[in-house]
């Protein structure tokens, strides 16, 4: 089988499988041992699949997606029917990413990393603002963010909103648009100059203009050995002066296991924001280990037996202990805490941005970085409008694509 790291894989899955299935052997190929500096990981994985012909793959979502698009993976449909494999309780947003347009499933993941909207109860109460709710729209989130007064000159100014990509407003807007079902690039054409994209960029840039958004470009990067300092760098919400933050489930674990370190942080959590057009969609789920079977595997039945075991209901109950850093893909497994439900609300996941960017030549990617560094500052300085900037960016990117 092919995975990123043999030791990590065996600790999570391999050792327990072998202990309960003594008639099986696991010969593991580690991608990391074959990857040299500067090499394209997609090419290395594709080469290993061809050369080694493994029976089972355990790969990150983007690597899985490439192989699925190439038609190199087997559908699970027949095995699921034959074994009556129970998908009840499986997170819809996880399954959605591994299906094709006909609904056939080509992978399963035991766990996922989810994102949600965290909020600081004290800041909301101090400013007499109602707490956030599940399924808020992005428009609502940005409107609420601007209600928090950012006192100039304060050592710890109140910040309305933090986003993981807040060091780059352009990328932040792209990620939010992606979660709302918008497309940056389709059928050899860039599609930035639209009313929908204009609304996203308007929200983001107005938030930065009002200093309501956390500005990650000014983050402290000096070396430190302090656990608390490192935690706050990874999760600025822990600083106590951010009203709302998009962050993943690792922050949830940090908050639960470090209560003594942050005793004054009274927090809550609601589902990932949505758009009015797609109220069941987000890009709030990341999959680090998608299990799949190559189309020409020599032992596909054995590979399916492994997947059946580690993605089954019994193993799911052990996952909070085996892999505490991620969330069980089965909602009934380890979800005694009601707040965990916030990570499971959305039924569809739109992570097309990564796939679309992969289609673009490197010079076009470089041009995208160039135009964003030109026009986003112009918007923030009121030298141009969002509409004009998007139109210019689209034209320059289209020209770069045509002349590559």
TrEMBL record:
InterPro entries: Bact_solute-bd_prot1, SBP. Keywords: Cell membrane, Lipoprotein, Membrane, Palmitate, Signal. This is ABC transporter substrate-binding protein. It comes from Paenibacillus beijingensis. The lineage of its organism: Bacteria, Bacillati, Bacillota, Bacilli, Bacillales.
